[in-house]
Specification:
The chain is mainly alpha-helical and about 140 residues long. It contains 6 helices and 4 strands, in the order αββααββααα. The longest helix has 12 residues. The relative contact order is 0.17.
């Protein structure tokens, strides 16, 4: 059985909490966060990222590896390792595809932006598909 890391559990708990407004197309914006943006916020709250600027505006953290340098709506390498996901957009292992209420996708970003899933639904999906979402912990 796959065990969640403390970081993964903190992220899923935050998604389930109802404390975050959901947005699409960006890690965060004036309307809220995408599911991966919530992970960035949690990483900042637990002191994993040292840098200047507000957590509500991730651009100052680009050089710290928080966001992907090419696609600012994706996770940087340090954040991918912190969360244990397969890629900047939270791709599923072996590019497996999932069909959500409104669209198909092969990443957490797809479920958030196009799949019509709430944060609670994404958290449930992740808990039911740990080996597809997270790399094996070492």
């Amino acid at each position: 059985m796959t065990q969640l890391t403390d970081n993964q559990e903190a992220w899923l708990t935050a998604l389930e909490s109802g404390d975050y407004e959901q947005t699409t197309g960006n890690l965060n914006d004036q309307d809220g966060f995408c599911c991966l943006g919530v992970a960035c916020d949690i990483a900042n709250e637990v002191g994993e990222w040292i840098g200047s600027g507000s957590v509500r505006g991730f651009r100052p953290y680009d050089n710290a590896g928080l966001t992907d340098p090419v696609n600012h709506s994706g996770l940087g390498v340090r954040m991918q390792k912190w969360l244990g996901v397969y890629g900047a957009l939270g791709q599923f292992k072996d590019d497996e595809e999932y069909e959500g209420p409104r669209a198909r996708g092969n990443s957490l970003t797809d479920l958030n932006d196009f799949g019509g899933m709430s944060f609670k639904e994404i958290a449930t999906f992740v808990r039911e598909n740990l080996t597809s979402v997270f790399k094996p912990s070492k």
